[in-house]
TrEMBL record:
It comes from Pedobacter insulae. GO terms for biological process: phosphorelay signal transduction system. Pfam families: Response_reg. The lineage of its organism: Bacteria, Pseudomonadati, Bacteroidota, Sphingobacteriia, Sphingobacteriales. Residues 10-125 form the Response regulatory domain. The modification 4-aspartylphosphate is found at D59. It comes from the Bacteria. This is Response regulator receiver domain-containing protein. Gene3D superfamilies: 3.40.50.2300.
Length: 130
């Protein structure tokens, strides 16, 4: 019998609220994900290049950028176009968010339920869109 090696998934979280970033990081690490967190969008592309995330969690309201513009950068760059993105926001809801040209793979309004977050991440990693 061959032993299956489970490769841990890398998740890059871009969230400016340190408390939320810490909570997401702790939750994901407890579920055996490898997590890197940024609290601003500066150098995002270098972090993506270095960390090679399997999924990104992206806040819409960042101090130095709009997450929807960052999503456009990700989607229009050949190297990052296929990285799944879960967007989160305290200001917007699934009903009133205007994504623009590029849609994320999923959206969660803050405050969110931890189980919802994990379900969406697992679903997106499995190829689902929410």
């Amino acid at each position: 019998m061959t032993k299956q090696v489970k490769r841990y998934k890398n998740i890059l979280v871009i969230e400016d609220n340190h408390a939320i970033l810490d909570v997401i990081t702790l939750i994901l690490q407890s579920e055996a994900y490898k997590v890197a967190g940024l609290n601003r969008s500066e150098d995002m592309m270098q972090h993506i290049d270095a960390f090679k995330p399997d999924l990104m969690i992206l806040d819409i309201m960042l101090p130095d950028a709009d997450g929807r513009e960052l999503l456009s950068q990700i989607r229009t760059n050949q190297a990052t176009t296929n990285i799944p993105v879960l967007m989160i926001s305290a200001k917007y809801t699934a009903e009133n968010i205007q994504h623009g040209d590029h849609k994320p793979n999923g959206f969660l309004a803050k405050p969110f339920d931890i189980d919802d977050l994990l379900d969406k991440i697992e679903g997106i990693l499995a190829g689902k869109t929410y």
